[in-house]
Amino acid sequence: MAANTTAAKKTADQAEPVACTCSQFATEDGRTTGCQAETKRLFAPGHDAKLKSFLIRMGAEGTEVIRTVDGIASSADASTHAAKFAFGHMVAAGITRAETKAAEKAERAAARAARKAKAPAKITAKVGRATFTGHMDGDHFVYEVKGKERRTLKFQTA
Ligand SMILES: [Zn+2]
Question: Where are the domains of the chain?
């Protein structure tokens, strides 16, 4: 019964489902969209978005993408592949955005590293009977008690 229904449907659509277009794309190190879908259209539902984000990711990395169609592999950068689809401009824009983001991230990381390099080294010292973590400021040990900064000359480092 079920088989009959499927057969009838196939005849009606005049097409066999084929592998989704997004599964044609891979990187040299074997990364793909992970697609195993079959569809009668160019893409399985939502897989144009899948391919789009895959190409953006690879493009931002500068990784070449290989498209294999009917056993013929062609290698190109992500935006070249994307240009063959309606969403090509979105991929190009996405790559630019990702690159900008990456540059900003690197800048922030560098700023953070610079701040860290400047931050005084943390030390642990005994003040009276309690032990605190703070830093040295000249001869003073500077530490915090309940959010208030205190400094003292009378302390003992561990
Ligand atoms: Zn797919």
Answer: 2-117, 120-157
